[in-house]
Amino acid sequence: MTQQTAGIHHITAFVRDAQANVDFYAGVLGLRLVKKTINFDAPEVYHLYFGDEMGSPGTIITFFPWANSRKGRIGGGQVGITSYVVPVGSRSFWEERLTKFAVPFTKVERFGETYLQFEDRDGLQLEIVEREEGKLSTWAFGGVPVDKAIKGFGGAVLYSTAPTKTAHLLEHVMGLARIGQEGAYARYRSTADIGNVIDVNVTPMAYGAGGAGTVHHIAWRAKDDAEHALWRSHVEQSGYHPTPIVDRQYFNAIYFREEGGILFEIATDPPGFARDEQPGALGEKLMLPSWYEEHRQQIEANLPPIQVRVLEGDEQ
Question: Is residue 293 part of a domain?
Fold first, then answer.
């Protein structure tokens, strides 16, 4: 069976403070909070989704804010760096913006591209890179105009404990093309125009430890439910152990851990985030799955209040 994912669907991480998380990803980075819901397995915790105007696949970063969680350690078996892509010519804007909000950054070169690397308030490693490909964002917020706004993911840097096996999976199971190797990384590319560039360490890396400031999993795209079912069979026939299909309300999901220790998910593009809210109102109300609706009052009372707000310095 030949299968080929278009690229990254979403990336999910752990943080501590919910409001600080909103202030950074909406306030500083200018992303839209497209869904405010709960961790279906731990309803005392938010599940917050940030992306482009509609939360399109390839733009979505999601968070579980656990106020008293331990600090994680980034290392093998994780997404080490989450890459964002911005329009060509906008890097200086982002340098100035990160400086204005006291976010230290460094410039690094990789495969002929210049990256601004920085951390969010919990230490999650991020980077911004300019590329022509990918349509411009239609979402502007605070001090981030549409012509400078993040388009979505540029891709990710995977930290593998067994990079040869991770590389084999990316190429021969997930269907990415190997581009080449430069220094410490090998590069792979999928077919979409965002969320499509994956770099993998070529030397085995020691395991990290999960917790605030680390990625929990990376999700890959399946175009619909029919293809998703094929993906599950394909992954299982390739020697991995996928979960049953799980309904996540806004997509269906399967999960499996690859041999380099990274938790992979395959998620369907539909139905998307407008299935239970109007497009103009995404992220404004706490949305609960039907089986939790009767507990809404208790759930809301246990969650800290959050708001999307224009940060001081962006106010006119």
Answer: yes
| Residue 76 phi, psi dihedral angles, 5° rounding | -60, 150
Q: Tokens at residue 126, please?
A: 């991020």
The string of DSSP codes covering 39-107 is ETTEEEEEEEEEESTT--TTSEEEEEE-TTPPBPB--BTEEEEEEEEE-TT-HHHHHHHHHHTT--EEE
- The residue segments making up the domain with residue 83 are 8-302
Number of structural domains in the chain: 1
List pLDDT tens digits, range 219-241: 999 999 999 999 999 999 999 99
pLDDT score at 78: 98
Within-domain flag for 310: no
Span 88-115, average pLDDT = 98
Q: How confident is the model at residue 315 (pLDDT cuts 50, 70, 90)?
A: confident
Q: In what order do the strands lie in the sheet with 152-159?
A: 105-110, 113-119, 125-130, 78-86, 152-159, 197-201, 185-189, 177-182
Any domain includes 309: no
Q: Are 246 and 18 within 8 A, CB to CB?
A: no
pLDDT tens digits along 124-147: 999 999 999 999 999 999 999 999
Say which CATH number the domain at 82 has: 3.10.180.10
Cα(198)–Cα(228) distance, rounded to whole angstroms?
21
**pLDDT exceeds cutoff 90 at 313:** no
The answer to whether position 97 is within a domain reads yes
Q: Nearest-CA neighbor of 51 among 174, 152, 171, 181?
A: 152
